[in-house]
Amino acid sequence: MNLNKRKSITILGSTGSIGKNTMDVIRRNSERFVVHAISANRSVEELRTQIAEFQPKRVVVSDPESAIILTKAFGSLIETGEDALSEIARESDIVVAAMVGFAGLRPTYEAIRAGKRVAIANKETLVVAGELMTMEAKRSGAEIIPIDSEHSAILQCLTGESHSSISKIILTASGGPFRTRPHDTFEKITLAEALNHPNWVMGRKITIDSATMMNKGLEIIEARWLFDVTPEQIEVVIHPQSIIHSLVEFCDGSMKAQLGAPDMRLAIQYALSYPERFAHLYDKLDLLKHSELRFEAPDDLKFPCIGLAREAMSKGSVYPAVLNAANEIAVAAFLDGQILFTEISEIISYTMSDYALRSDINDIQYPPGTPLTLERIFEADKWARLTTKLFASEIARMKEMEQ
């Protein structure tokens, strides 16, 4: 075994669900990979365990208090700040972009600029800046390999196929915990119910996104950039069993589907090994236990977030950034008990409509055709967060007055 030939990996967001699963993939393939650097927001005890086991050369901690605690144990190994985060994103062979939310945008962009292989789970990066990211990847030679099970499935279906033969990309969705729940009871949905996903174990934010099906809306925008297809070529189908992870329909009418157990480690390992396949180290899919596979169309009345995402994609420019920021703030407000489940999509719609009313001002500052930049995206993100917080606070205030 020649350990010098192991590929180095930086994990942005090592203590989250994707990060911990990535650590397990590396643990099971230690002859192929070595951890170079990790980053996290807090999760002090999880970081202690990861540092002790994987002995990374650099550790970046965003939360100042957590950084102080860890510095007492590990000294100068612990770093903080955006500059350090961007540095570790440029250093290793592979960068796993697993940070949650908009915070993962800049370090992921730095990794792409540096020409790295980016195994991307941070869907917000491609949602708000897909055009920038894909253009930069073409310039630098970076590889953007998806970790999401749906996009990993599409990549696997398209391997060896001509891009011109693609007729349609079909993203499957479990339908979340409320697929069969009557719409007239949605206002009574509790936080515990929304966090109880039937198939996947994920972080709180993405679990709520799955319950509202905003995750599928964001994945539509991602797929548009990852696979260079038009919005009209992307379809969503509910598949409650989560066995077929996605499909591609070709111009001759034939379809390819990728099947597998609902285990994120499979997609993570494929992103690290692509285009190779490593030996299977996890539970295999037993088709005899899944003799019935069902499909149905999403209910637009129950899940308006898919339509909001398509609207943002259609308008382009910074609208996906506005959508994403509004969703992050609205989900946080629901998690904090400020708003109802149904008010998540309502507040996102308010914010997008409010931004559209500013179009005259925006067009003066940025006339149509003005190139999209990170600065414009950050500006739109900041505005949308502040506006959405105001909407959420106003809704919470009105409820208090009614009590």
What does it look like?
This protein has a seven-stranded parallel β-sheet, sandwiched between helices. The protein is α/β, with parallel strands linked by helices and 403 residues long. α9 crosses α13 and α10 runs parallel beside α12. The chain is 48% helix and 14% strand. The chain contains 16 helices and eleven strands.
Provide a short characterization of the protein structure:
By secondary structure, this protein is α/β, with parallel strands linked by helices. Helices cover 48% and strands 14% of the residues.
Largest sheet: 7 strands, parallel
Radius of gyration: 21 Å
Assign a percent range to the helix content.
40-55%
Average of the residue pLDDT scores: 93
Chart the SSEs and their pairings.
Elements: E1 7-12, H1 17-28, E2 33-40, H2 44-54, E3 58-61, H3 64-74, E4 78-79, H4 82-89, E5 94-97, H5 105-113, E6 117-120, H6 123-140, E7 143-146, H7 149-158, E8 166-173, H8 191-194, H9 204-212, H10 214-226, E9 234-238, E10 244-250, E11 255-259, H11 264-273, H12 305-315, H13 319-335, H14 342-357, H15 359-365, H16 374-402
Parallel strand pairs: 1-2, 1-5, 2-3, 3-4, 5-6, 6-7, 8-9
Antiparallel strand pairs: 8-10, 10-11
Helix pairs in contact: 1-11, 4-5, 5-6, 6-10, 6-13, 9-13, 10-12, 12-13, 13-14, 13-16, 14-16
Jot down its keywords.
single chain; 403 residues; alpha/beta; seven-stranded parallel β-sheet; four-stranded mixed β-sheet; 16 helices; 48% helix; globular
